[in-house]
Design a protein that fits this description.
Layout: E1 2-3, E2 7-10, E3 38-39, E4 46-65, E5 70-78, E6 85-90, E7 97-117, E8 124-133
Length: about 140
Amino acid sequence: MPVKAECAEASSTQPPDKDKGEDFFANNSIDGKANTRWSSIFEEPQWLILDLGEEFNVDKLIISWESAFASSYKIGVSSDKLSWKEVFSTTAGRGGTETVTFPISRARYIKIDLLMKNGDWGFSVWEISVYGKRKLVLF
């Protein structure tokens, strides 16, 4: 089941494009709109943190990248935003829409550490969906 993130914060955000009337705020990555995006400044590394508002058992992200995607990134989870547990990493990011699965983990916060970009631009994300459950039910 999709979990709705309440807010997002980023290490950096590219300034607005006044010619196109476009802004690149971190919350654009979770607003449910396919035509808005978050975009970082043009430096490595960067990060994006999603706040789920409460703890969930999460096990999947779907990341819809703009053409400026991360070729290397890792994902961490946290209950307090102080200590992080790495649940996924790759050096073979391919852009487009990537489905990332990992062992079910209890978390309120999800951090995507963007380590290496695929070109001269920054990192850019159209939308991120988080999947999980409020409670883990074992039979």
